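Changelog note: in this version the structure field was regenerated for every chain. One regenerated record is shown below for reference.
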Amino acid sequence: MKKIISILLFIVLCLYFCGCNNTANDCEHHWEYDYDGTITCSTDGTVFYKCIKCNQIKEEFESAYGCYDYDDNGYCDECNKKYNNYTNDVAYISNRSIHYENTTKEFIFLFSLLDAYENELKINAVVDFRIENNNEIVYSSTKNIYPNDYGTWSNVYGKSWIAASIHIPISQIKEGATDSGIFYYKVYTDTANFDEFSLSIYGNLPKKDLTNNCSLKLPSLPIEIRDDSLGNSMPIKITQIDYYFEESYSGNVELVITIAGQRRDRGMLDDDNISYHCNVGYKLFDEDGYIVASGEFWTPQLAPGEKFKNVTERFFGLTPGKYTLTLIDVV
């Protein structure tokens, strides 16, 4: 008898604490969401709940649960309506940059369009842009931007953003005076018309060999000039002139001229083999006949009959072109 009573007591306690005797009428229900009925993100409707104890289903009418945008594209993932404060009215242009991508041999221009709430937009736009190299336009174009031209970009600091991209193959850029330049761009949308902005490009632009456009006309050799700077009119014979042009960082060229020759004999006042520095005068003319430089080559100390070589003058900041060298007496 005691055993039977113990069993009955155990069953009663179980039913009491479980709160359910497997019949829906007596269950102390614990409802949890089961599935949607007619409710959507933007319309009111029915929702179904299920008791986790007795499995009873109930239907309730509820308000719309609201739009959601998990992929952060500005539109509801369910109904595709504009999400939250997103609009198509552009207020700002942001995240502007241009960089060179060595693997694909191209420049990539990035920019973001934001609304008044600083939400990133993926909308149609038009971009006029050009690249100038030393004040010469080496590339210009207009590109229509569509939503699929936008992508997610990131930097080494872990920041990511949505930006439109314009790709400019280096093969389409004209050679310029330097390897650097300025990128100018102007962005239009249906609701915005931004001013023209610019970004600097440091390196990687196609560059001309400026020395191909340079030449130097030399005097006929040998030529004899006289140095009368000391009053003794020393005769100097120039037997060789070498030169070369090289590019400078500014887009101009540098001219290097080297002469060789001989102090022929004594000057008018010499009575022995005294050595003197000799001066060889010069003038450098551009192709329009203007003097761009003048001065003197200064030789080592020379006694009568001694030869010299590797006497050099350098001319900086020259515009690529044709030049003429003349040698003159020094008085």
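Spot check on this record: Helices lie at 2-18. The first helix runs from residue 2 to 18.
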